[in-house]
């Protein structure tokens, strides 16, 4: 879905910055994770956005691995009480979870736009 009026944008950096997948300038999100209605620079309608559960699955797998590893290192190195683990890891999981989810969601939306990805269809299937 390349528009000759707009040069292609790099998907990784554009998505991480939360910028428009067409022009790379406008905001992609209203707030932390809610996609905007349209780009405020090129007026691209963001109705096509359907990231689904993909970003969440990536974040759960990534943060689960990283935080569990760090928690085990802290436990075996220092042996803090259980409440100290709660004080350390709950804020870490919340902050990193939101930040990483936003970045991955942005990248997946930009890739979805660039590859004209849509709901799965069978070849030759009539449009209903």
Strand arrangement, major sheet: 1-2
- pLDDT average, as an integer? 90
DSSP E strands, number? 2
Task: Identify the overall geometry.
Answer: elongated
Strand content: under 5%
Q: Could you say which structural class the secondary elements and strand pairing correspond to? A: mainly alpha
Share in helix: 40-55%
Features:
128 residues; mainly alpha; 3 helices; elongated
Structure, explained:
The protein is mainly alpha-helical and 128 residues long. The model has no long low-confidence stretch (mean pLDDT 90).
Quick take:
By secondary structure, this protein is mainly alpha-helical. Helices cover 51% and strands 3% of the residues.
Itemize the secondary structure elements and their pairings.
Elements: H1 11-17, E1 29-30, E2 34-35, H2 54-78, H3 82-114
Antiparallel strand pairs: 1-2
Helix pairs in contact: 1-3, 2-3
């Amino acid at each position: 879905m390349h528009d000759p009026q707009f040069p292609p944008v790099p998907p990784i950096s554009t998505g991480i910055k939360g910028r428009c997948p067409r022009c790379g300038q406008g905001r992609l999100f209203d707030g932390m994770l809610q996609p905007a209605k349209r780009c405020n620079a090129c007026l691209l309608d963001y109705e096509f956005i359907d990231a689904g559960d993909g970003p969440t699955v990536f974040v759960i797998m990534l943060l689960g691995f990283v935080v569990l590893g760090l928690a085990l290192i802290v436990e075996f190195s220092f042996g803090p009480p259980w409440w100290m683990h709660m004080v350390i890891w709950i804020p870490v999981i919340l902050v990193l979870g939101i930040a990483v989810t936003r970045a991955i969601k942005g990248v997946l939306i930009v890739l979805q736009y660039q590859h004209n990805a849509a709901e799965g269809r069978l070849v030759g299937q009539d449009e209903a």
